[in-house]
Design brief:
Elements lengths: L1 H32 L3 H11 L2 H13 L7 H14 L13 H13 L4
Length: 113
């Protein structure tokens, strides 16, 4: 019985965590679309997920709301690369697959990183 309670608690915790990530990504996107780039960047930073890492890399690469910094961009692209475990995703249906392939191209673009 205790194990069941613990499992239910963990399931609720994971669900709340994924809901937080989705809502944070949406809020960050809204801030970006409204031109509030610094707020968008901070929200993506707090989301801590592959989509957020990808967007932060884009901000650094293009100097959107932050100082242009290719090394920081590459670090974030690497975070995307390592955060997406293709074995655990249904890759054909997964929305993150395009981010993965774009990230691979970006990492090849900066071989000296």
């Amino acid at each position: 019985m205790k194990l069941l309670i613990v499992l239910l608690f963990l399931g609720n915790l994971l669900s709340a965590s994924s809901e937080f990530i989705v809502e944070t990504n949406k809020a960050a996107y809204r801030a970006y679309k409204n031109g509030n780039y610094k707020k968008a960047f901070e929200l993506y930073k707090s989301a801590n997920n592959p989509k957020a890492y990808y967007n932060m890399a884009q901000f650094y690469e293009h100097g959107i709301g932050v100082k242009k910094d290719n090394q920081s961009a590459m670090r974030n692209y690497e975070m995307v690369y390592y955060a997406i475990d293709l074995k655990s995703y249904k890759t054909c249906e997964n929305e993150l697959l395009p981010y993965f392939y774009i990230t691979l191209k970006k990492l090849k673009k900066f071989p000296d990183y």
